[in-house]
Amino acid sequence: MPIPAPIVTVAFAGALLTPLAVDADLLSLLAATGLVLAVLGKHTARTSQEIADEDLAASHQDERLRTFGQLAAGIAHEINTPAQFAGDNLRFLADAFADLQGFLDEARAVQAELERSDAGHGPAERLRRAAEAADLDYLVEEIPRSIAQAREGLERIARIVLAVKELSHPTGREKQPADINRLIESTVTVCRNEWKYVARLELDLDPGLPQPSCHAEEISQVVLNLVVNAAHAIEERFGAERGPQGLIRVSTSHPAQDVVEIRVADNGCGIPDEIRDQIWERFFTTKPKGRGTGQGLAIARSIVVERHGGELTFDSRPGEGTEFIVRLPVKADTQE
Length: 336
Prior knowledge:
Blueprint: E1 6-12, E2 17-21, H1 24-32, E3 36-44, H2 48-116, H3 121-133, H4 136-168, E4 176-177, H5 180-190, H6 192-195, E5 199-204, E6 213-214, H7 216-238, E7 246-256, E8 259-266, H8 296-307, E9 311-317, E10 321-329
Parallel strand pairs: 5-7
Antiparallel strand pairs: 1-2, 1-3, 4-6, 7-8, 8-10, 9-10
Helix pairs in contact: 2-3, 2-4, 4-5, 5-7, 7-8
């Protein structure tokens, strides 16, 4: 099978950027004419078999994701049931200990009265020794704190379960109004493990945000990709050994009546000027092997621009950080 000629993006004088399949000799000849201003990019042309293989791999990935969604929803349900039992029991223990606290206070008052009388000195001493043996003061202080921490942990589990259930629930083929703020809260909860070791994450969500007609699970994917990218950029700048040094800020607003805006900003490494035009290309990545596939931003742009008729732009300062801006129309367009 012959090796396909490389495809180069060529800027001609007085013309638009043009992709051409050329060999090195022809490219040199074109450059010698003075008509070629610059060669802006180069990659190897894909054969039809390579394209078919990529499409097949993509369909397999889609099927795996659908299967994962079904499994995630089932696992979330299974986790939720025992978590509810544990939560109910902890609420009972908290209420019961509050009642027990009243009894202990009364017992201490009786003990004080006994200590003041000659006849009650012996029983009072027995109560004092029993309280010391049980370390009663420590228990009275620590049991409510332990119950509160356990309840907080279960509430976090409940939030994660709810987020997984919402994100794994298919919304159908047609676009529907979606609560973008809640979608973002669920998404950052599910991907918390990606950012919690390198950054703090702040939410600034507009409570009056309109609900745009969209494919909610796809917009969740966009937010997920942008937040994970932000975490990776922060890790590249600060490293992960010193703990969360960075900041990710996710905000929503509606700068116009018919537009909803999502911003994901970070103080990571930023995007170098020389690759700004390449970040939307499928399979383009600067991350080490195994860290990224180079599809996250390409998929996000496809979802926002092609599937929803919106805009996905960014502002970046190398060495300081990046902000991605998603703009979605409130009313659905005709593309599905």
